Amino acid sequence: MDQSLFRSLAALSLALFCVTAPAAAQEASLVDGAKLLLTNGVTTIEGTSGGGVATWSTIAGRETDRGIGLSGHVTLIELPDYGWQSHGVAVGIANRIELSYARQNFDTRDVGTALGLGRGYTLNQDVFAAKLRLAGDVVYGEPLLPQISLGVEHKRNRDAPVARAVGAAHGSGTDVTLSATKLFLSHSVLVNATARLTKANQAGLLGFGSEGGDQHRLQFEGSVAYQLSRRAVIGAEYRTKPDNLAIAREEDWWDLFAAYALTDHLTVTAAYVDLGSIATFDQQRGGFLSAQIAF
Amino acid sequence: MFLLAAALLMQPATDPPVDWDKEFGVEEKVRDPVTGELPVDSYVQANGNAGAAPFAGSAMATAFGGQDGIRRIANRTVELSEADPRLAAIFQAHDMVRLKRTLFEQFCYILNAGCDYSGRDMASSHKDMGVRMRDMNALVENLQAAMREGKIGFAAQNRFLGKLAPMSGHVITR
């Protein structure tokens, strides 16, 4: 081999080594996991990131603006007459876009018998959601400018014939949410307010709209949380709901929750939830337990 | 690496040594014998450079253990960050002696513990660092760790972070 070519190759390999080695160390991986603890929220019953019952403007996953984040969750709710189980996954892209999927399984237990569905009939629903952060940051930037996100949740009830039988107009529907969330560090208090346009009856498990009322209605979700430590937060949430169905009254939901980050990747949320009257069975108050794993 | 070693071996041994510092006009900076700091270009000093209005009253200064406690937290934050593989590349390129002093002054001024801030403002001091959101978060975690070690109550930690968080726009440059 020609000596000058050999020298050039040596110089080039040295140069490449110098350029790539520190850069590779510094850029780390695409899944950077660098979001501040708990600022990805926990997973809601709809699979979006938020406070458990209310959707927040937070983006799922532990990525920052140059990475990709992932999360998965399982949620159980134990009520006097029903059992809820949901699970799902979410992807956060550059702390800007959240894409999520959740499967909801609502066990009607003895109510199934009363409704003529059969004991333990389970209503199922898929929720495909997308959320876009429009402005602000939940922690940084202007102290009074919240993180604001626009979300879409497309819900497909897998038991549409049941939903129609109870008077719903549709077996699937799409909610639109607009959320504002801010952690007020001066008081260790996080506040969220969300406006939701929805036709959903009991979040969609009893279908969407009804013959008497088939338009999107504006609903409100509010959360207030207090940060006890880097890993622990307690809070309360309230969520209003439409009341479309003639056969059963639908009530607002509220909950008291505590979330704890056991590790940087595993967060457990426990809550007392009051889901009001569901399909004529009143006072559905019980326990909510959710585990979220996030990277 | 083999190519590199081969290239070094094949260098003609007769070339006279070149003083590259002289060739490129590099002047060696000498640390101040008293402060131990490297010299910096002059700038206008003002407390406004600290980037936040100080707390009113003495409660926060007390919560942070006065100037001694604040100095420990500022030093510890720098030490943790220097040793942090996520941040070492940024920190090691700068004068840690000066940073420990100016960070202490900034914290002390904002916590109203009786200091003036003599450092640069946040935009010009971070201008060429290329700090990303993930670096900022890592620094916040190190400051939180330092405050935890200093037994600072969490509510007071957050109140202090609340003064620093709005500066993110001047610190994060890419």
Keywords:
heterodimer, A: mainly beta, Porin, twelve-stranded antiparallel β-barrel, two-stranded antiparallel ribbon, globular, B: 174 residues, mainly alpha, Globin-like
CATH architecture heading of one domain in chain B: Orthogonal Bundle
Radius of gyration of chain B: 20 Å
Judging by the overall fold, what is the CATH architecture of the largest domain in chain A?
Answer: Beta Barrel
Q: What strand line-up does the widest sheet of chain A have?
A: 3-4-5-6-7-9-10-12-13-14-15-16
Number of helical elements of chain A: 3
How far do the termini of chain B sit from each other? 33 Å
Q: Give the DSSP E fraction of chain B (strand runs of 2 or more residues).
A: under 5%
From the 3D structure, determine the CATH topology of one domain in chain B: Globin-like
Binned, the helix content of chain B reads 40-55%
Structure description:
The complex is a heterodimer of chains A (295) and B (174). The model of chain A is unreliable at 15-26 (pLDDT under 50). In chain A, strand 9 and strand 10 form a beta hairpin. In chain A, 13% of the residues lie in helices and 47% in strands. Chain A has helices at residues 3-27, 109-114, 160-165, and strands spanning 42-43, 49-50, 68-78, 83-93, 97-107, 122-135, 147-157, 168-170, 172-184, 189-198, 208-210, 217-227, 232-239, 253-261, 266-274, 285-294. The termini of chain A are far apart. Chain A is mainly β and 295 residues long. Chain A has 2 domains: 1-30; 31-294, Porin (Beta Barrel). By secondary structure, chain B is mainly α. Helix content of chain B is 51%, strand content 0%. Chain B is built from 10 helices and no strands. Chain B has helices spanning 2-9, 20-23, 59-63, 66-82, 88-91, 96-110, 122-125, 133-149, 154-164, 168-171. In chain B, helix 4 (66-82) crosses helix 8 (133-149). The model of chain B has no long low-confidence stretch (mean pLDDT 92). Chain A binds chain B through residues 3, 6-7, 9-11, 13-14, 17, 22, 25-26, 28, 32, 34-36, 64-67, 95, 137, 139-143, 184-188, 227-230, and chain B through 1, 3-4, 6-7, 10, 85-86, 89, 132-134, 136-138, 140-141, 144, 154-155, 158-159, 161-162, 165-166, 168-169, 172.
